[in-house]
Amino acid sequence: MSSNTALITGITGQDGSYLTELLLENGYEVHGLVRRSSTMERSRLKHLYADESVYNKRLFLHYADLDDPTTIRRIVTRVQPTEFYHLAGQSHVGLSFDIPESTCDTTAIGTLRIMEILRDQPQPPRFLHASSREIFGTPTVSPQDESTPVNPNSPYGCAKAFATQMTKIYREAHGLFFCNAICYNHESPRRGENFVTRKVSLAAAKIKAGLQNNLSLGDLDAARDWGYAKDYVRAMWLMLQQDTAGDFVLATGKSHTIRQLLQTAFDHVDLNWQDHVIIDDRFKRPADACQLLGDPEKAHTTLNWQPSVNFAELVQLMVDHDCQAIHASATAKAGAASS
User: What sections of 126-269 are H helices per DSSP?
Assistant: First the structure.
């Protein structure tokens, strides 16, 4: 067993896949919890499955759901991780209004179950909870930092606020190395297609390729602090390498609107977004977070962490990826048809 052994929930997600790569590069043995589902397609980790020197040698997957603490406890006891990264949960804010009970059970109580399991271990691992800027909801101050009062305005934000506060309580009451990474929006080519950044990058690529004509969106003036997911998981890892446990806001400190997102993405493929975007009120949230802008100063000074790409570079990276994927798919289909 490696001297550093990590266990990751949500390993098949955007953050989990980037974190897995980072830990493997740093010599870790990596274990991941995955939900048993009707599909075995886990595209973000596909390249690691195919590597015989990694899969089932340094990377191991275990079936477990967040509502199954017995199985999680068994895995933790067997693996004995030195670091535990809790990234799993229902992470779509808009969807949380439709499924508030399951959001809270998974995101709030699921986190508490894990902390109870870890507290019982002979040598509790260092624990990172991936919190969210949604805990601030409608903030009273801008930008927000680690001392900003929580004020969630969505079921997801409320569930994350509970998990965040409990992580802090376990750190202070039980003396555990438990941390909150309060993440602002972080995107990448691996972002799910139901998130607005990926909707936009994919639409720009598809419209350029002639595969679709329009894109329906809600409030174009909604502003977000968007960063690169690969940068954020690096900060998460740095948090667990410190001498003292603490909470950190992970953000760029810069805000952009969906309108700017559209402009950057469509400009990159020489299109005018105004020719293709349709405003649809169905995509507007019942209550939207406003003035959400993170202050990453503590991460800058304590972790020596800085984002590696700016907003425009991130959007262009995502659009390029989607354009290349569409081109590769078309080439493969043409090859199959000719053969």
Answer: 155-174, 196-208, 229-239, 258-268
For helices 196-208 and 311-338, angle between their N-to-C axes, nearest 10 degrees: 50
Helix axes 229-239, 14-25, angle to 10 degrees: 60
Q: Catalytic amino acids?
A: 184
Instruction: Tell me if residue 51 falls in helix, strand or coil.
Output: coil
What is the rounded CA–CA span in Å between residue 22 and residue 239? 14
Report how far residue 262's alpha carbon sits from residue 230's, in angstroms, rounded to the nearest whole number: 22
For CATH 3.90.25.10, list the domain ranges present in the chain. 196-223+254-290+310-338
The model's pLDDT over 166-222, given as tens digits with 9 standing for 90+, comes to: 999 999 999 999 999 999 999 999 998 989 999 999 999 999 999 999 999 988 998
Which tens digits make up the pLDDT trace of 267-278?
Answer: 999 999 999 999
Percent of the chain's residues with pLDDT above 70 = 93
Instruction: Read off the pLDDT of residues 68-81 as tens digits, 9 standing for 90 and up.
Output: 999 999 999 999 99
> Burial of 219 by CB count in 10 Å (0-12 exposed, 13-18 middle, 19+ buried)?
middle
Is the domain spanning 196-223+254-290+310-338 CATH 3.30.43.10? The answer is no
Orientation of helix 196-208 relative to helix 258-268, angle to 10°:
30
CATH architecture entry for 5-188+226-250: 3-Layer(aba) Sandwich (3.40)
